[in-house]
Amino acid sequence: xxxxxxLAKSRDFSETIxxxxxFVKQNIKPLFKAFFTFSGxxxxxxxxxxxxxxxxxxxxxxxxxxxPIASRLEYGPSIFETFGVExxxxxxFYLLTITxxxxxxxxxxxxxxxxxxxxxxxxxxxGYIKYYFWRIxxxxxxxxxxxxxxxxxxxxxxxYLAPIFALIFPIIVFxxxxxxxxxxxxxxxxxxxxxxxxxxxVVTWIIIYVCIMAxxxxxxxxxxxxxxxxxxxxxxxxxxxxxxxxxxxxxxMVFLTIPIITICLCYFNLTETKEGTNxxxxxxxxxxxxxxxxxxxxxx
Length: 300
Fold this sequence. Notes:
There is one protein chain. The protein is mainly α. The chain contains 13 helices and no strands. The protein is globular. Keywords: Membrane, Transmembrane, Transmembrane helix. This is Glycerophosphoryl diester phosphodiesterase membrane domain-containing protein.
């Protein structure tokens, strides 16, 4: 059995990705228990609203609802009239699920490190989640807004900012920092290491995307095959297959834990490379003398 991974250390490209999956493997039960404990409600609520929304969209595509699609898919009130409250609930629950997932995973890693590579309890995690939830939610809103503007201007600014802004969240949780401090610090940490961080995150996301596609592809192929075999029937999408796809997509959100772990390891790699934080902690502990009470008393 491999020893528990030491989080705070320098890693190269392949070691970071390898240690990500090793960490998940070693902590799969407590980590996924935390995921479903704190994100389960939002996933369930989001799945239900997404199922009703998908049924409505499928019926519209199949022409089983009155009114031409082009005239109904307009901006303003017509979107609400067409898709209903399910559309907005799906978006809201998705954003809440992602936020809870981030807070839960970052809190798990922070407590894991503090406890000396031991899985935290549910009560300990809940304390961290309550404390950091609104901070992470606000940071997500601002960073996504800035990324949106970045991608709007020729994509390049958005691509450049994406790996930098990803570091904001571990800085907030691991250093108990404000958004302003984390915003400035992420630029400092990633300096001269942008390509390494970007490459690690891209490869990890590709792996996760392939995993999610492998799970949802069978149900999606049912609709694709139906369109190929019966083109004369119009869209002819299967409501059952569409609903199954939506359910599998929401359950597959558990895989998003993996790139968040990767971001954590990128943070530790950058802090150790630039600041040697863990080394300084070890040096400071050299002067701490801890008597071993299991040894017999010396006799003279």
